[in-house]
Design goal:
Largest sheet: 2 strands, antiparallel
Order of helices and strands: HHEHEHEE
Helix content: 40-55%
Structural class: mainly alpha
CATH architecture of the largest domain: Orthogonal Bundle
Number of strands: 4
Distance between the termini: 58 Å
CATH class of the largest domain: Mainly Alpha
Number of helices: 4
CATH superfamily of the largest domain: Large-conductance mechanosensitive channel, MscL, domain 1
Shape: elongated
Length: about 140
Amino acid sequence: MLNDFKAFLMRGNVLDLAVAVIVGAAFGAIVTSLVNDVVTPPIGLLLGHVDFKDLFLSLNGQSYPTLAAAKAAAAPVIAYGQFLNTVVNFLIVSMVIFAVVRTSARFEKPAPAPAASTKQCPYCCNTIPLAAERCGFCTSSL
């Protein structure tokens, strides 16, 4: 049973999947940093020195200076700034994945056409088996 499990793990698909998960996690961390540290600060600057991570809506009607203060007071909040960061993060990841899939599809060789197993009778134009010496429809000798 141990040998079967080892053979299963060493198949190409499982190793490819493991590598993809590890690379995907690392890529996710890079994109998260890109969104939080590069993309949203200039947008926040244009909107009047707003930090997207601190944008929230208090549901209990009280005002809090920061999201951390609202959470410390156990106030119900909708943290839409963090949601916006997550949406931007998702859009960047999905665009990159789309570009990678589209690029890899260009490099794939088209599947070879299957070998013909039939032919047309030159006399009646019906489809007959490739190995036929006589047409089954018009009985012509091929």
